[in-house]
Amino acid sequence: MVRRTRYPDSRNAGGERRLSPVLLCFSSSHRTAGFDLLERLERHAPAVTAALAEHSEFVSGSVVLATCNRFEAYLDIDEPLPAARAVPAEAVIDTVSAATGIDADELRASSSVYRDDDVAEHLFSVSSGLESVVVGEGEIAGQVRRALQTARAAGTVTGDLERLFQVASRTSRGVKNRTGIMTAGRSMVRLALELAESRVADWSRVRVLLVGTGKYAGASLAALRDHGVSDVRVYSPTGRAAKFALSHDVTAVAPGGLLEELAGADLVVACSAVTDHVVTHALLAEALRLPGAAERRLVIDLGLPRNVDPAVAGLSGVELLDLETISIHAPVEELNAAADARELVDAAAAEFAARTTEQAVTPALIALRSHVFGVLDAEIARARSRGDSSEQTEAALRHLAGVLLHTPSVRARELARQGDAQAFVDATSALFGLEVDDVPATRTLHAVDDETAAS
């Protein structure tokens, strides 16, 4: 009698087809939107994460990436039918709109939606610095890792998203180690300081006020020191200045000392994560009127949301460089390094997709293996009952079964990579009488590592 094994497909306990997971990315970046819109999105990132988590009817998990020049939500989506592929994307845009207060039509016109294999290619490009304002900037890889860590802490990461982001990190490390793009590329703060070169005669005589104490503040301080700056005062809107100053050998500004420091600073670099303006028009105007205030000052605002009120640019003696202005002057990408990096990213995305499609046949392979070894176990049991079996014989039979299963396993993965997984499923059903349901036609981005168990 043929043993009948059921292929574990996407049906629930009631026999109804369960929603099939697909990855989707909602992306709004410097390429598609203005910095005002990106600032509003970044400000509401926690609300977007919470809102997406509430839509469990189509969102299984999410990772939100919010940086100074992009806002992206990577989602593990459940879809009922291929014909309804546009529905989740529209639902995501509506959810982001409701959470941020931004009109859905404005979001639709200022964003891109990636899905299936394109999600991996896009994230790998982002994490490798190929989509940054400054191509090859090094901060983005860390930001991608921290986005995943935040999602883990919030409990919104699924296995599919975890694997996607893990491969993204490996890809960015490969790009960094095998191309010159990370060293050739420059960060936003370094580009801003290069733009300021014509305004500064001697960096060693510049008095700098650094607003912020996070990772970006540390990178900004390193860039300032590379230019020869030695006089740096740090102010923290959240009261962390003393700790940062102690660990970075700079001078801390007391909580009530911002006005005086603004008056004496030749250069203000703002890179705090607070959501309100730290340097307002009224505050800086008052600082300019203090006795001994510097006649001219350059203000570099790297914050998103903005740390500096854009209106300060209208004050006499004040020049403002914000992210939008800096991005206009971003250099043309270093062609050779970028081309090499793009080739690595494309190869990683192709392999990711290929490994993922192999998983379409994994449950059928498990069914076949269970069937073969089930028949073998039954025969061995009967042989034992007759006293006809030995350990050596049983070991040889199990080895033979494994050898016989090797070629079908290899062929199954080859067919899956060619987009013909259903042919293997049909063959196992016809040859062995296994109850194998249809393989979802667009089952992508599921597993990427060498896993042999059904997920």
Brief characterization of the structure:
50% of the residues lie in helices and 13% in strands. It has 455 residues and is an alpha/beta fold.
Radius of gyration: 29 Å
Secondary-structure content class: alpha/beta
Arithmetic mean of pLDDT: 82
Report the portion of residues in β strands: 5-15%
Oligomer: single chain
Q: Characterize the main sheet.
A: 6 strands, parallel
Distance separating the two termini: 29 Å
Count the strands?
10
So what's the overall shape? elongated
Physical arrangement of strands within the biggest beta sheet = 7-6-5-8-9-10
The ordered H/E elements are EHHEEHHEHHHHHEHEHEHEHEEHHHHH
Please count the helical segments. Answer: 18
Unreliable stretches: 1-20, 438-455
Portion in helices: 40-55%
